Amino acid sequence: MLEFRCELMRCVTPEEAAEWDERMAERRSRRVRVVLPTTPIEEQVRAWRRRQRQAVDRGGQ
Predict the structure, then answer these.
(1) Is 0.85 surpassed by the pTM of this model?
(2) Using one digit for the tens of pLDDT, what is the confidence trace for 8-51?
(3) Is the Cβ–Cβ distance between 34 and 27 less than 8 Å?
(4) Where does the source fall among the domains of life (predicted)?
(5) Do the Cβ atoms of 40 and 4 come closer than 8 Å?
(6) Which residue of 1, 5, 9, 45 shows the fewest CB atoms closer than 10 Å?
(7) Could you tell me the maximum CA-CA distance found in the chain, to the nearest angstrom?
(8) Orientation angle between helical segments 14-29 and 40-57, nearest 10 degrees
(9) Rounded CA separation 49/31 (Å)
(10) How far is Cα of residue 25 from the mean position of the Cα atoms in its chain?
């Protein structure tokens, strides 16, 4: 999974990667709230969509 993540995150800045790691860590600590565990791929898709939205909010890149 780590290799998979590195593949997907190659185009991500270290700051974004660190922020993503923090988000993952805090999500893991609130796992109680999550009813269905998400697969790594679903997490990747969500993170990617979130980045797309942020890019659009910033005026697109």
Answers:
(1) no
(2) 555 667 788 788 788 888 777 766 555 666 678 888 888 899 99
(3) yes
(4) Bacteria
(5) yes
(6) 1
(7) 36
(8) 130
(9) 21
(10) 11
